[in-house]
Amino acid sequence: MAETAKLGWVDYLIIVIMLGISVGIGIYYRLTGGKQKTISEYFAANRSMSVIPVGIALMVSFMSAITLLGVSAENYIYGTQFVVINISYLLGTPLVNHGFLPVFFKLQATSSFEYLEKRFGAGARTVASIISWLQLLLYSGVVLYAPAIALEATTGLSKTLSIVIIGLVCAFYSSIGGIKAVLMTDVFQGGLMFVSLFAIIGTAAHAVGGLDSIWRYAEEGGRIQFDSISIDPTIRHTWWSLIIGGFFTFLSLFGVNQVQVQRMLTVRSLNSAQKALWLNWPILSLLSVTTCFCGLAIFSKYHDCDPIAQGRIKSMDMLMPLYVMDTMSHIPGLAGLFIAGIFSAGLSTISAALNALAAVTLEDYFKPLYKRFTNREFDSENATILGKALAFVFGLLCIALAFVAQLLGGVLQASLTIFGVVGGPLLAIFTLGMTSETATEMGAITGVISSLCFCMWIAFGRPRPTPPVLPVTTAGCGNQTFLVNAVSQILFNVTEPEIQEVNDSSYFYLYRISYMWYCPIGFFLAYFVGLIVSYLSRCILGNKMTDLDPNLFFPIFGKRIERRQERAAEERQNGFTDNALSTKYSFNSGKTDYSENCSSAL
Question: In angstroms, rounded to a whole number, what is the distance separating the alpha carbons of residues 264 and 136?
């Protein structure tokens, strides 16, 4: 069995320099400008950021180290069908720009969940905030753990050392430098990510004779797949699942996610925020396509000697670092540059999460509780100090969670699935508020909780079939050829030999549905349950509608509400009563009892 090369001192020096630059950026922004002394500067950069760094940062915080390792392995193991998901990014960008973003920009709140309190009430804000807070914290721990274990197995770099160093560096520069430091380090780290990916493609092209040779090996190995157009939801990746599922996932991440909303609110105007999101789209797609092609580049190296079937590695996430060590370790510093790129992907994601977690905790929990018990507003200077302390504490907590993931093993895949499962219900509760004039707090809370429970059930229910993988061989290793079943057993710890096809009808149907459908399923379930419960709460309980703020709705809906309110104001001056106006224009000041109308309708 082939031995895996190790990192040299030049590689470690490059990694240290990368970490030093990230820390230096944090120190710089701590010592310059307003020195992060106010909440506005610490969490929103005083709305002074320019379009380019924000556009790049939006992409970098979305593409974690898990994404770089996982997407390349996806194309190696399952083929190129996943590339189709990039179409959904283009479809989702205008909806975020002209639907969600104008609402949040008018609100100008540090926490995106403040919207839910203004639209529904404190209960909706608390429920959604807690769900998002737990998901984001757990995911941050996973982002630390996943690349660390892959790098240890392939490069010899200590897993414990990786977790601790990355966690501490993130906690330090995020806490002292605020959102400005996070955004500017994202730009630097994004560049390193691209360099590391281009290095992989370049070395592979040089080894096999060009990019066309990489493509030819992929074709011969059956990896070029763009023809899956089935509407069957149990097929793992099709045009429908990737475009529709990717569309809703994109909306959940860029439309309502605290991390991304907070970034887009650091610019001066709505127009600048929209430009930043449009800039994000080509950069995000370029990185995504490049990462996908990296999987084909790696396949060109191992097309006749699969390292998983050979037993050199045990997880597909280790393919990229193994390739780097096999092909670049003889050039001093090149492998270290790749490791720096992987670390950069982890740093960008975790630093974004730490800043967002601190903002949510301060705005959604500490400030409301302080005001409730003291009947006073939280002092701005003390709030900034507390925000910095929270960011650092969350960094330490992420380190602890990374070690918990190490001990529990299966929590890795479970956490990544939760990240998708949570997105649909959270997207729905915001969309419900921004598009439905009749939605109530009871409906919103019931919808998001019921949808979350349902999605958790279908995502983690057992037993479930294993997705079929493409065939590999070890013929070029001089060993026996291992086909797809052997790879499946290694990749997914499958012990039952009969588990081979994802659409095996012997399994419960909902457990066979592709994970790409979890987000749209969660969205529609939460949205329509929210509408139904809202209707029943008004009919049965006699809940009353309140005045509608047009700024809390998508602009197309807000303008319609404004026109109705203007006409109602004119007619009120002409002697119409509030009850008559509420019946005519479907809004009021909380005085009309809808139970009688609902009863007659029933």
Answer: 18
Of 557, 556, 543, 553, give the one whose Cα is nearest residue 588.
Answer: 543
Compute how many other C-beta atoms are within 10 angstroms of the C-beta atom of residue 587: 18
By the 8 A CB rule, do 53 and 273 touch? no
What b/e string do you get for 437-463 counting C-beta neighbours within 10 Å, with b at 16 or more? eebbbbbbbbbbbbbbebbbebbeeee
Compute CA distances 500 → 221, 486, 491, whole Å: 20, 11, 12
Question: For the purposes of burial, counting CB atoms within 10 Å of the CB of 62, is it exposed (0-12), middle (13-18) or buried (19 or more)?
Answer: buried
Read off the pLDDT of residues 533-572 as tens digits, 9 standing for 90 and up.
999 988 776 655 557 889 999 999 999 988 888 887 777 7
Mean of the pLDDT values across residues 242-247?
Answer: 94
484 pLDDT above the threshold of 60: no
Strand partners, 49: 267
- Other beta carbons within 10 Å of 554: 17
Question: How many residues can be counted in the chain?
Answer: 602
What backbone phi and psi angles, to 5 degrees, belong to 49? -75, 150
- Residues forming a β-bridge with 267: 49
- 417, 100 contact by CB (below 8 A): no
User: How much of the chain, in percent, has pLDDT values that exceed 90?
Assistant: 41
Select from 523, 515, 551, 529 the least CA-distant residue to 252: 523
- Asked whether the beta carbons of 424 and 161 are under 8 A apart, the reply is no
User: Residue 334: pLDDT above 60?
Assistant: yes
Q: Which CATH superfamily is domain 26-532 in?
A: Sodium/glucose cotransporter (1.20.1730.10)
The first and second tokens of residue 250, run together, are: 């994109």
Closest CA to 363 of 236, 265, 488, 232: 265
Work out the burial of residue 489: count CB atoms within 10 Å of its CB; fewer than 13 is exposed, 13-18 middle, 19 or more buried. Answer: middle
Sequence spans of domains, the chain: 26-532, 544-601
- Cα atoms in the 13 Å half-sphere on the side-chain side of 296: 29
Determine the Cα–Cα distance for residues 297 and 163; give it in Å rounded to an integer: 28
The CA distance from 91 to 95, in Å, is: 8
- CA 484 to CA 161: how far, in whole Å? 35
User: How far is 347 from 22, CA to CA, in rounded Å?
Assistant: 9
Coil vs helix vs strand at 521: helix
Residues 224, 209: Cα–Cα separation, whole Å: 19
Distance from the first to the final alpha carbon of the chain: 74
Contact 587, 437 (CB under 8 A): yes
Q: Of 357, 529, 514, 538, whose CA–CA distance to 428 is shortest?
A: 529
| Cβ-based neighbours of 305, under 8 Å, separated by 6 or more | 473, 474, 475, 476, 477
User: Residue 588 pLDDT > 60, yes or no?
Assistant: no
Token pair in block for residue 39: 């909440």
- Between CA 187 and CA 18 the distance in angstroms is 13
Provide the whole-model pTM. 0.89
Q: Which phi and psi angles does 210 have, rounded to 5°?
A: 125, 170
Radius of gyration of the chain (CA): 26
Helix (H) or strand (E) holding 127: helix 122-155
Q: How far apart, in whole angstroms, are the C-alpha atoms of residue 263 and residue 178? A: 12
